[in-house]
């Protein structure tokens, strides 16, 4: 699944603006709030706090971990717009009220602004992260 074209375009504009001036203009921030609703501001807070970490293994597999405002670590998969947080399951999957949760939006914004922490792990460590998520859900 992909984001609607207007959301993709907005994220491209944010990336471009940030590369040129190291900040996001107000009109793009308003667009963010308009398209993503109430998760826009908390997502920007997560980016400001550098709460997003890109986790990479030697094989090139990548996932993101976001330290939520509650202090819990959530795993996000940007390739399929999925997050392990309860808000994603409820607001996005069950109710279809939102395009995504604040954690995934923070991942996209961190990518656009070059604000991701980087963590290299072994294949085994990556597997352990994925298995820990399954245990949490089960």
Automatic annotation (TrEMBL):
Domain SWIM-type residues, every copy: 74-112
Pfam families according to UniProt: SWIM
An annotated GO cellular component: Shu complex
One Gene Ontology biological process: double-strand break repair via homologous recombination
Classification via PROSITE patterns: ZF_SWIM (PS50966)
Keywords noted in UniProt: Metal-binding, Zinc, Zinc-finger
GO molecular function: zinc ion binding
Protein name as it appears in the record: ZSWM7 protein
Gene encoding the protein: Zswim7
């Amino acid at each position: 699944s992909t984001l609607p074209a207007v959301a993709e375009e907005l994220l491209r504009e944010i990336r471009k603006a940030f590369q040129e001036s190291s900040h996001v203009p107000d009109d793009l921030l308003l667009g963010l709030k308009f398209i993503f609703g109430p998760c826009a501001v908390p997502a920007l807070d997560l980016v400001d706090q550098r709460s997003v970490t890109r986790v990479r293994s030697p094989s090139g597999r990548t996932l993101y971990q976001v330290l939520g405002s509650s202090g819990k670590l959530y795993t996000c998969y940007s390739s399929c717009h999925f997050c392990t947080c309860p808000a994603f399951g409820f607001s996005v999957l069950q109710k279809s009220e939102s395009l995504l949760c604040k954690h995934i939006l923070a991942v996209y914004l961190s990518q656009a602004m070059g604000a991701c922490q980087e963590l290299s792990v072994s294949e085994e460590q990556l597997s352990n992260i994925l298995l820990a998520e399954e245990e949490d859900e089960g």
